[in-house]
Amino acid sequence: MDKLKRVLSGHDAEEPSGLAEIIDATSLSWGTRVKGFIACFALGCLFSLLGSCLLWVPVKGLLLFAVFYTLGNIASIGSTLFLMGPMEQLKRMFDPTRLIATVVMLLCLILTLCSAFWHKEGLALLFCILQFFALAWYSISFIPYARDAVKKCISVCLS
């Protein structure tokens, strides 16, 4: 009945709620999203490359590598927030099919930074290696049947 009253009184469109106004005000255009994705992904690649170059610094090289490599991976993962939006990204990350891959990847990121800041070079290197494999496994979870193909490839290579 309220809708009929609004139509007859000339107020056809519903008044947007406060949440709808906030969403509209904070929404990015597709072009801005793509630019944000490219910038954040490029920054992630730059951090990872910088970390690789800093690996050869004499005293603190391994620790700098671990920190910049991890920051690069975080920025690269964060770049997809621009394409999907934060809530959709979180829904996809914690989807039951990739929940374990997400948790392991996030745990490796955190443990790499912790071991680097606690000056445990061996652990930092170990967690960087684990981080690489965890991020690769997480990334291929977005490709249909890719994890099954990798599992089959590994089983064939090991047998």
TrEMBL record:
Coarse class of the protein's main subcellular location: membrane
Transmembrane segments: 36-57, 63-87, 99-118, 124-145
Keyword Metal-binding tagged: no
Keyword Membrane: yes
GO biological process, one term: vesicle-mediated transport
GO cellular component: cytoplasm; endomembrane system; membrane
Superkingdom of origin organism: Eukaryota
Compartments, as annotated in UniProt: Membrane
Function: May be involved in fusion of retrograde transport vesicles derived from an endocytic compartment with the Golgi complex.
Name of the protein this chain belongs to: Vesicle transport protein
Taxon lineage: Eukaryota, Metazoa, Chordata, Craniata, Vertebrata
Gene field: SFT2D2
